[in-house]
Amino acid sequence: MVSFAVPQMPKVVAGMLLLAAIAVPYATLSQLAFEPVAKDDQQQKIVERIHDEQSLNGPYSQNLIGPLTALGLLYQEGGDHGLASSAINQALQVVRFNYGLYSLDQAPLIQQLIHNEKARGDIAGAWDLEHELLALARRHPEDLRTVPIFREAADGRMDVLRRYLSGEFPPELMLGCYYHANVSNPEKGNCNSGSKGAAAGSILSDAWRNYADAIRTMLRHQLYASDELRELEMQLVRTSYFYGNPEVGRRSLRRLIAYGAANAEPWLSRVDALIQMTDWDLLNGRNGYALDTYKEAYELLKEKGIDAASIEQIFSPPTPVVLPTFMPNPLAADRAQESSGHIDVAFDVTKYGRGRQVEILDTTTNASDAAKDELVRLIYRSRFRPRVTDGEFADRSPVVVRYHLGAQQNVASAGSDR
Predict the structure, then answer these.
(1) Residue 32 to residues 71, 180, 329, Cα–Cα distance (Å)
(2) Which of 140, 166, 188 is the last residue of a domain?
(3) Domain count, the chain
(4) Helices (H) and strands (E) in the chain, counts
(5) What pLDDT score does 7 carry?
(6) Which of 100, 196, 362, 379 could form a disulfide with 344, with the two C-beta atoms 3.0–4.6 Å apart?
């Protein structure tokens, strides 16, 4: 590396040069040549306020941040995206001048710019700004203001993935170079084509990284009781369920157990978290291990004095629990939906959560053969939480369910093979 010796200079001169070096990037920015214009009375008042403040305290006065931001928003709402960008960028430069190039105070303005670029149809511009915002957020790993930044980026990646897998080719696919990131030899890859599975995996990993960054930030503050923290963990669980990689979801479920213990939650809540992880194990083929853990959880509930009704609701409810529980139970009646009829069905739930010996008992006259066949398939495809009968996890536990016809006929089995 080439190095240069820096000669000494008088402190006054050095200070003047430093101020000049700081001022030049801002003074030469095109945004500062932007002259606010007004198209209505509300904008006119803000423009006059900006001019007055510039005259009084100069172009980098902190007091300009608010009115420039408000003016940018008004331009954006009025469809003047070019003017909006100029106003927001000028506000951004004022923030950087006053608080530093890497201050997180500029994040809301960058977010506003992102929304403006998307509104004007510049997806590439919005993408570049989002990467700038994420890089800024990662400079502040302990600042809780980064949590919504990471979460919004992760949710955006999941939207791209859903669109891609449904047959679209969103521009983010190439902007993120998701094909290139997964080829075995990156030098031979490109950003425009490649394996669909590899690209989908890259998008998913990018989303997971952002969810994980948000979670880590919250954990640094020990926010174990936070609903937002739990929702972030459940986003990992849900996406892991739908798109593969059960270990990602299991780690989140295990952390949720730890949060309950750290927060000294009631035993019913803590054991329920353990059962949720055991449901996950059962869904993912760890049958014997899951059954042993269910038994331990059942005994723990009794040991901690949990009332019998609560235990029954977990392990022996009238309608069997279909896994995973974060999806709607397709066998449960939807009280908001009027039933157009019903099918009464009997079947056994095995100790490993399989539906067997399905028998249609009775139906209303409008229940078609197709509806009955679909219900039978639904039961055979689904995975259920094992049931306790007479204090034991029986090899087979018989149940009778009234399945209501209507909207639920269109609900796919939450526990079906993916």
Answers:
(1) 15, 39, 58
(2) 140
(3) 2
(4) 15, 5
(5) 35
(6) 362
- pLDDT, residue 229, reads 98
Structural domain including 50 reads: 10-140
In this structure, what is the dihedral angle of CA atoms 70, 72, 75, 78, given to the nearest 10 degrees?
A: -70
The model carries a pTM of: 0.84
Does residue 290 fall inside a structural domain? no
Closest CA to 180 of 152, 199, 154: 199
**Do residues 212 and 204 make contact, with C-beta atoms less than 8 angstroms apart?**
no
Question: 168-227: per-residue pLDDT in tens?
Answer: 999 999 999 998 754 444 455 578 888 899 999 999 999 999 999 999 999 999 999 999
Question: Going by C-beta distance under 8 Å and a sequence separation of 6 or more, which residues neighbour residue 321?
Answer: 314, 329, 384, 385
Whether residue 370 lies inside any domain: the answer is: yes
Final residue of a structural domain among 90, 106, 140: 140
Task: Please answer whether residues 402 and 360 qualify as being in contact, where contact means their C-beta atoms are separated by less than 8 angstroms.
Answer: no
CATH number at 401 reads 3.30.2420.10
Q: What is the CATH number of the domain that holds 22?
A: 1.25.40.10
Tokens 């739908």, located at residue = 242
